[in-house]
Amino acid sequence: MARRFFFAALQAGFAALALAPGGTPALAETLPQTASSHRVITLSPHATELIYAAGGGHYIVGTVSSSDFPEAAKHIPRVGDGILVNQERIIMLKPTVLVSWLRSGIALQIEALADRLGAQMHYFRPLQLRDIPQAVRRLGRLLDTSETADDAAGAMDARLDRLDAQYSGQAPVTVFIELGHSPLYTIGDDPLLNDALRTCGAVNIYATSGLPAPRIPIESVLVQKPQMLITTGTPETAADDMRKRWSAYGLGAAQLGHIHIADPDALYRPGPRLIDATEAICAAVDAVRQGKDVTEDP
Q1: What's the pLDDT tens digit per position in 140-151?
Q2: Do residues 82 and 225 both lie within one domain?
Q3: pTM check: above 0.90
């Protein structure tokens, strides 16, 4: 599910970086307007999660099919899958606010529709971990839920402060993130995920690839000899599969069990749960520094 969302997001969104003169801002700059009643439609699952964190989940009247967190989000009416969206359904839901990720693809069509409906269109694309609590604060101002949003954002900032304090200055650990293995894809030039690794004192070996999700040859990974491997899936089976496949090529990280299995939705959605995923990655990176078999950690 998360892998499909990740590739769909790549198709729908990364081209938007070329559309904005001087670069795309990390967060929407539209000033919030006070409203007595909000009707929100979210066009990406991370937007749904951000709004719930900001205390505005009860304002969401429509969302996309992949919005499944928190549990309450599963019961929100659907307007499409994020790539194909039912504009008639959106009109029927009478939104006052629409929230998306990147200003590209279907979002541009919905932007024109929002203008006709007199609704606001907002984009939230965190580029660093610190942008996530900032987005929650801005959504709190937009939806008049600042008290809840500020508390949630403050707690996120405190967690990031602790990670910075604990792992700043630690010996760097090189990391390979396996996005898919048949064919082999990895996370490359993704500023948010690379910032998460930086927070842990880790370095993505493909961070400077120039592509967000490049296809790579196995030989390239073997030459670079990453100290740690990250993938997603069911921990019990994914770790064993990754260990067997890469050990067969003689990759030391696999043979030593330096493998971390992440929650795919938490890792690939740029929302509050990415902080959870980062904390888990930091603990695994630290275990690798100590020479531990990460796959055997409780």
Answers
A1: 999 999 999 999
A2: no
A3: no
